[in-house]
Specification:
The strands form two sheets. Strands 2, 4, 5, 6, 9, 10 and 11 form a seven-stranded mixed β-sheet that branches. A four-stranded antiparallel β-sheet has the order 1-3-8-7, with no helix packed on it. The protein is mostly beta strands.
């Protein structure tokens, strides 16, 4: 059974940084693309970043390009999201999700429970 567990969220001031982690189990991690989604109050869940199974293919939402970096460690079954220059618009619950193939094209499903990120002064 697919299990995804996010961690690393918290409260941070505007301009600050956080690193989110997602630990995966229940499938052959190295064969699948992974992604991060977020959902803010009153908004739809949106794709933030995606990474191919090997880590060679990357995809980012325009709103986070240049600020966020997705990476993975297949040996540790972990995907990371480094978030820099955070602003209040980044406040959301962040979820990691498993891809249906090795590429970043999606679809993504099997979301974790989420971790709250709050950017506020």
């Amino acid at each position: 059974q697919v299990q995804l567990v996010e961690s690393g969220g918290g409260l941070v001031q505007p301009g600050g940084s956080l690193r989110l982690s997602c630990t995966a189990s229940g499938f052959i991690f190295s064969r699948y693309a992974m992604s991060w989604y977020r959902q803010a109050p009153g908004k739809e869940r949106e794709l933030v970043a995606a990474i191919s199974s090997t880590g060679a293919g990357l995809k980012y939402a325009d709103s986070v390009k240049g600020r966020f970096t997705i990476s993975r460690d297949n040996a540790k079954h972990t995907v990371l999201l480094q978030m820099n220059s955070l602003n209040p618009e980044d406040t959301a619950v962040y979820y990691c999700a498993k891809g249906s193939s090795s590429t970043t094209n999606g679809p993504f499903g099997s979301w974790g429970q989420g971790t709250q990120v709050t950017v506020s002064s």
